[in-house]
Write a structure and sequence with these properties.
The protein is of the alpha+beta class. Helix content is about 20%, strand content about 40%. The protein folds into two domains: about 210 residues, Thrombin, subunit H (Beta Barrel), CATH 2.40.10.120; about 190 residues, no CATH class. The strands form five sheets. It has a seven-stranded antiparallel beta sheet, with helices on both faces. A six-stranded antiparallel β-barrel has the order 1-2-3-6-5-4. The chain has a six-stranded antiparallel beta barrel with strand order 7-8-9-12-11-10. Strand 8 and strand 9 form a beta hairpin.
């Protein structure tokens, strides 16, 4: 044996630990899958007339009488439109009728009745874990069959509007609604979303417990639940809560050019900025934007609970006043950013009011527009656009967009926003 070959063999023999750890993990994944695969189910939403599948997802049993927990967005089509129905598939691939009993659109959860007693279900309880705990996510990725994904618990996100667990593992489409659990079978959360590159998110399991109780209450009621009314109430209550936290601090402002402008209304907003000059260097623009990462899924065409703000500051670097005025006016005339939140059947047309408002030493040209939700009473999208008048070489066009809010809250937040647009102190 050559000395080089002998050295290579010696190195291989000296490194047994890493393969052994990997093997133990493989064994744990296999054990978890074998023990809990039959605690899960595949969910599909079917168009009743054609039998075509409109949505696929995952779910898991949480009671002896066969209640399933899944994501709201998995079954939303059947909740929103009576042309669709919910089916669940057992481990043999046989399809059975399911009935949605309760939903929580804010946390993206739903409970489905199966009318099939089972002894293979998870007992749920709130729990706390140290970061780094290994988790196992079960689900049906891309309609390829039940799969298991190994990952790591990285705690609850600190700056988010709705509670979420950061799960380092690849949750793929179709796994939504499946369970993420510890090696000993305790469910930590419900698969809900991914940002790619193994950055995924879970709904904490404690959020599912009250939804299951509401499902129990619904079973004892006569007649199907009025989900449209219930969803509207949930959104109204939710927006009352989180809008009350916006613009509470006096330091939520940014200085750009001669302006003091609102920024990061609450910790769960993310903000970013950029600047640009035209090719002749005659003027400069500075963009500053903040928005929530969270949103509420209502249907494939409509989202709610989105709040954003944006400023475009224009600074003249030798542009003549007439050209600067035209540039500024064109910027103000740009269309609403809220159009992407819904389709025409989900909302009415915008109704707008234009004003010139004096605030301290400023004159603000404003356009305040609202449109009403057609299905959910008392909810609106609102868009406030503002331009500061009076400076020959500087201007700012600022826009606040709110979706899924009451009219009173829209006007209240708009006033708070206007109060935070000022001349910067010299």
């Amino acid at each position: 044996m050559s000395s080089k070959r002998g050295l290579a063999v010696a190195l291989l023999l000296a490194l047994p630990a890493r393969p052994a750890v990997a093997q133990r993990r493989d064994e744990t994944s296999a054990t978890v899958f074998q023990r809990y695969a039959d605690h899960t189910a595949k969910i599909q939403v079917v168009e009743s007339g054609s039998g075509a599948k409109a949505e696929l997802g995952s779910a898991f049993f949480v009671s002896a009488d066969g209640l399933l927990v899944t994501n709201y967005h998995v079954v939303a089509e059947a909740v929103d439109d009576d042309r669709y129905r919910v089916e669940w598939l057992d481990q043999n691939g046989a399809g059975h009728e399911g009935r949605v009993l309760a939903v929580d659109v804010i946390r993206d959860l739903a409970v489905v009745a199966t009318d099939r007693p089972t002894t293979r279900y998870f007992s749920l309880a709130a729990l706390t874990l140290p970061k780094g705990t290994r988790l196992y996510s079960l689900g049906h990725p891309e309609d390829l069959g039940l799969s298991i994904v190994e990952g790591v618990y990285n705690g609850r996100l600190e700056h988010t509007l709705y509670p979420k667990i950061h799960f380092t593992g690849p949750i793929n489409p179709g796994m939504s609604g499946g369970p993420a659990l510890t090696a000993d079978g305790r469910v930590v959360g419900v698969n809900v979303a991914t940002a790619g590159n193994s950055v995924s998110f879970l709904v904490p399991i404690d959020a599912a417990i009250p939804v299951i109780q509401r499902a129990r209450d619904a079973e004892s009621d006569s007649g199907p639940p009025d989900f449209t009314a219930e969803i509207g109430k949930q959104i109204l209550a939710n927006q009352d809560t989180y809008l009350a936290t916006l613009f509470q601090g006096g330091d939520s402002v940014v200085h750009i050019g001669p302006f003091e402008l609102p920024t990061q209304p609450a910790p769960f907003f993310r903000c970013w900025a950029d600047a640009d000059r035209d090719h002749e260097g005659r003027y400069e623009t500075v963009d500053h934007q903040c928005s929530t990462d969270d949103y509420i899924y209502l249907s494939g065409s409509q989202s709610s609970g989105i709040v954003s703000l944006a400023h475009k500051v224009l600074l003249s670097r030798g542009l003549n006043p007439l050209r600067f005025y035209n540039l500024y006016s064109n910027e103000f005339r740009q269309s609403h950013t809220a159009a992407e939140f819904a389709e025409a059947t989900d909302v009415t047309e915008y109704r707008c009011r234009n004003d010139n408002i004096r605030r301290q030493r400023m004159v603000l040209k404003t356009r305040f527009c609202v449109r009403r939700y057609t299905s959910y009473e008392g909810l609106y999208d609102a868009d406030l656009k503002v331009a500061v008048l009076g400076a020959r070489d500087a201007g700012v066009v600022s826009e606040l967009t709110l979706s899924g809010v009451s009219f009173d809250n829209a006007t209240r937040i708009a006033r708070k926003y206007l109060d935070r647009i000022r001349w910067a102190k010299p």
